[in-house]
Amino acid sequence: MRLSRAAVLAQAKAAALDGVRRLNCCANLFLSLPAQISICRDLPNIEVITFSVNGISDLEPLHQCQNLSELYLRKNNIRSLDELFYLKTLPRLRVLWLAENPCCGPDPHRYRMTVLRNLPSLQKLDNQAVTEEELSQALVDGVEITAPPARSSVENGWSESTASSATGSTTEPESELLSCSLEETNKTQDELDLKPVPRDKYSSFSPQETDCGCNKRNNVLSAILLLMKELDAEGLEIIQQTVVRRLQAFQKKELQEE
């Protein structure tokens, strides 16, 4: 499915595409396989993009986002590091989160060195600061990418090889792609510069409870955390007052049961 103009404007709360500075589409259902982000070609002033936990495989639409400084692509369907070719033209890119994609491969060192060789201006990769020593080592251990990924036949932004890979991946349960475990929620917290959720306060579900109910609760929690960043001070105050009232109601109910 395609990320539409209307969806972008609604999510970013902007009147026009050239006014969009931040776009947060983490774990969005409208970006299910095969995901298309061609709308990014029309976002000249975008600075921060969060597309984590979607079905994205083609990064070509991002190469025109010249003001992009932070890009979060964790847990997508990016199969080849050749896709970095499209990010090499972004002069302001400083933060990239690419972990948990097929392109990372079985060798973490080779993967990190290749990314840093091609994107030496990065200050943080996969939530880890980039050091001068790594940048020097990347010139030796990393692979330089000089051409875009080969696609034998492209239709609607997808190659035959990518489409077949995506088809294979859809055999996994949808909850595997979109469920938000404690680890998943805390990674989202990191992306949003929020504190991690303590394990003892994350879930009160017992092992006997169904995965469906647990996933629903966790997805709701993750969605709330993501949406909170979009609120201003007045909105956060309303949330705070609502939470206080809810907690008081729960405490009152517990006292009555005792």
Automatic annotation (TrEMBL):
Q: Which Gene3D superfamilies match?
A: Ribonuclease Inhibitor
Its Gene Ontology biological processes?
cytoskeleton organization
Keyword annotations for this protein, in alphabetical order, are: Leucine-rich repeat, Repeat
Write out the ranges of the annotated region (Disordered).
150-209
Q: Which GO terms describe its cellular component?
A: ciliary basal body; photoreceptor cell cilium
Q: Where is the U2A'/phosphoprotein 32 family A C-terminal domain?
A: 108-126
The family database entries (Pfam families) matched by this protein are listed as: LRR_4 (PF12799)
Compositional bias (Low complexity): 159-183
Its domain of life?
Eukaryota
Q: Which InterPro entries match?
A: Leu-rich_rpt (IPR001611), Leu-rich_rpt_4 (IPR025875), LRR_dom_sf (IPR032675), U2A'_phosphoprotein32A_C (IPR003603)
Q: How does it assemble?
A: Found in a complex with CFAP410, NEK1 and SPATA7. Interacts with NEK1.
Q: What does this protein do?
A: Plays a role in cilia formation and/or maintenance. Plays a role in the regulation of cell morphology and cytoskeletal organization. Involved in DNA damage repair.
Q: What is this protein called?
A: Cilia- and flagella-associated protein 410
Q: What taxonomic classification does the UniProt entry list for its organism?
A: Eukaryota, Metazoa, Chordata, Craniata, Vertebrata
